[in-house]
Amino acid sequence: MIRAIVSGAGGRMGSRIINMIHETEGIALSAAFEHPDSPAVGQDAGPVAGLEVLGVTVADSIDSVIDQGDVVIDFTTSEASLKHARTAASHRKPIVIGTTGLAREELDEIRQLAKDFPCVLAPNMSVGVNLLYKLVDTAANVLGDDYDVEIVEAHHRMKKDAPSGTALQLGRVVAASLGRDFDKVSVLERHGFIGERSKKEIGIQTVRAGDIVGEHTVLFGGTGERIEIVHRASSRDTFAKGAVRAALWIVEQPAGFYDMQDVLGLK
After folding, report:
1. From 155, 216, 231, 241, the catalytic residue
2. Are residue 157 and residue 48 in the same domain, yes or no?
3. Active site residue 241
4. Is 168 helix (H, G, I), strand (E, B) or coil?
5. How far is residue 19's CA from residue 24's CA, in Å, rounded to a whole number?
6. Residue 129, Cα to own-chain centre: how many angstroms?
7. Is the dihedral of CA 237, 242, 245, 250 positive or negative?
């Protein structure tokens, strides 16, 4: 039985991950923690997540529970995730990180840490979204430079980062397929008199409204036709399910930096 430690246990994703662990064979919740000011600290993680009492008290730091499990599952903030990765690395404890909005320097540090311990990091843990990456890669390779590429992402009004990590990853997938430098060709905002669209640019547009869980559309626009590949998430459970799947996988892997494409065998 795999013992899982869940960070951000009082948050929206943390509670869904606890529920998914509860429903999945071969894995059990052994520890949970939150930031010290969270009202969940000191409570049983079960009722916090809408379940019966589980006998697991929500702690106030990763340091107090790191030795109580086999793998850490982390959906928090970029600053917190980096701290948790450092702690996990120092204990050679596998970690699954689904946090979005990580800066390049933070990603680089986690990648460096992963030389000594196993880490899965993905901006989107959904199985469907990771298949979307594969489909978009195939489409870009077939369609080539004759089609303009635009990505539109929509999320709930509470999401703090924009564009979404998934949209940025989709842009990178397209850019790599077309032999372009994403940092040079990405256009994340348009307003005013912008002139004619350049042939190489990859546009990403952001929508924030209501309680949208997550929607991503990749549009390939050619002369006389367009192709749209769309993924819509209707529940956070799709991300929680992918995270638990990644946790079950990573405990069997050697030290290294992995993503959901590795977990799903899509590489």
Report:
1. 155
2. no
3. no
4. helix
5. 9
6. 10
7. negative
Q: How far is CA 221 from CA 7, 150, 202, in A?
A: 41, 8, 11
Determine the structural domain holding residue 82 and report its residue range: 2-121+236-263
CATH number at residue 241: 3.40.50.720
Catalytic status, residue 22: no
Q: What is the pLDDT along the chain (267 residues), one digit of tens a residue?
A: 999 999 999 998 999 999 999 999 999 999 999 999 999 999 999 999 999 999 999 999 999 999 999 999 999 999 999 999 999 999 999 999 999 888 999 999 999 999 999 999 998 899 999 999 999 999 999 999 999 999 999 999 999 889 998 999 999 999 999 999 999 999 998 999 999 999 999 999 999 999 999 999 999 999 999 999 999 999 889 999 999 999 999 999 999 999 999 999 987
pTM above 0.85, yes or no: no
Choosing from 83, 134, 159, 200, which is the catalytic residue?
Answer: 159
139 and 202 co-located in one domain: yes
Looking at the fold, whether 113 and 240 belong to one and the same domain comes out as: yes
Domain count of the fold of the chain: 2
Q: Do 257 and 225 share a domain, yes or no?
A: no
